[in-house]
Design a protein that fits this description.
Elements (H helix, E strand, L loop, with lengths): L6 H9 L10 H18 L74 H19 L4 H9 L6 H4 L7 E2 L5 E5 L4 H6 L6 H12 L8 E5 L13 H18 L3 E5 L1 H8 L5 H4 L3 E4 L2 E6 L2 H6 L4 H19 L2
Parallel strand pairs: 2-3, 2-4, 4-6
Antiparallel strand pairs: 1-3, 5-6
Length: about 325
């Protein structure tokens, strides 16, 4: 084969992967290509950084220096060998000089204002409550009703819709006292207008009475407790002066307490209802008969017979009052 080949012959031999006369072996060509590429990369110029990408200047030590630390007794776990701790920015509290004994002086702070004396606050509240009770004891029927309608003496004043003063005839001889307004009473602002009120009207009718002519109906609480829960002690205490003034103005001949809260609130006792039933109690000289609340009878109709016995006792006491 001649030493000089045409380009077509050289390409044909290369396609057949055959050696071409005058060309280096394939492995030597590969090494040469790799070397040329490495040389090109090495000779490539690196662009200079722009002004915005300039290398930050080395940190310059500021004129402020932390005071030289005084010797402190070595603590357990402290590094040994005198290695310097990395420098960090110290707050004003941390930069407080440390005494030789190793304890840090506590940072000074402005003294807090002294809270008001609890005894003085309680005395002020007690004085205001006494003034409220004294005022209630002097009100007539209309002014008493107006004061109840705007009362905020306990938190119930914020949750009620209407304060319920009472219902019936203020000149009647009978007073029936319940526990507290229910949902319907709160909505309408009248006492005993729900299902329990309808049952109470039936009880009055069985006694030969009516609320419009013979009886007045009131409650221990003038505002409805949320979700019809039981009255709380502070609520009863705040509301009782209203009922006491109502009784003083009504001067009933007989009082019928409907339920535990009415009986215990009027008599100022914690005696169970079962022990108060069947007896004649007295509130400031007025005979008082204790029986079940109509709402209780709606849940326990079997006890209606016991209630009728209590009401007959009340009728007997009333008859005795009429003879004097």
């Amino acid at each position: 084969m001649p030493d000089i080949l045409s380009d077509e012959q050289r390409q044909f031999l290369q396609l057949l992967r055959m050696p071409v006369p005058g060309d280096p072996p394939p492995e030597l060509a590969q090494d040469k290509t790799t070397a040329n590429n490495a040389s090109a990369v090495a000779n490539r110029s690196v662009p200079a950084p722009s002004a915005s990408e300039s290398v930050p200047a080395p940190l310059v030590e500021t004129s402020m220096r932390c005071p030289e630390p005084l010797p402190i007794p070595a603590e357990e776990g402290a590094p040994v060998g005198g290695g310097a701790a990395p420098a960090t920015a110290l707050s004003s509290a941390e930069a407080t000089p440390i005494p030789v004994n190793g304890t840090r002086s506590p940072p000074t702070a402005e003294p807090l204002p002294s809270p008001p004396a609890p005894a003085a606050a309680q005395a002020s509240g007690a004085t205001g409550e006494r003034q409220r009770i004294t005022r209630i004891a002097t009100l007539d029927w209309r002014d008493l009703s107006n004061m109840v309608s705007t009362c905020q003496a306990c938190p119930l004043g914020e949750t009620r819709k209407h304060a319920v003063f009472g219902a019936g005839n203020p000149r009647g001889s009978w007073l029936f006292v319940g526990e507290a307004p229910g949902a319907e009473e709160d909505r309408r602002g009248e006492a005993f207008v729900g299902r329990a009120g309808q049952l109470l009207d039936n009880m009055l009718q069985a006694m030969g009475l009516s609320r419009d002519k013979d009886a007045y109906i009131a409650n221990i609480l003038k505002c409805r407790p949320p979700n019809n829960r039981d009255p709380l002690g502070p609520e009863v205490q705040a509301c009782m002066p209203y009922l006491q003034r109502q009784i003083a103005l009504l001067q009933p001949r007989v009082i019928v307490a409907l339920g535990r809260f009415a009986a215990q609130g009027l008599l100022q006792v914690d005696t169970p209802l079962s022990q108060l039933r069947g007896t004649t109690q007295h509130y400031q000289g007025i005979p008082l008969i204790v029986t079940y609340h109509p709402a209780y009878l709606l849940r326990n109709p079997i006890d209606k017979r016991k209630v009728w016995e209590d009401l007959k006792r009340a009728l007997g006491v009333f008859a005795e009052q009429a003879t004097f």
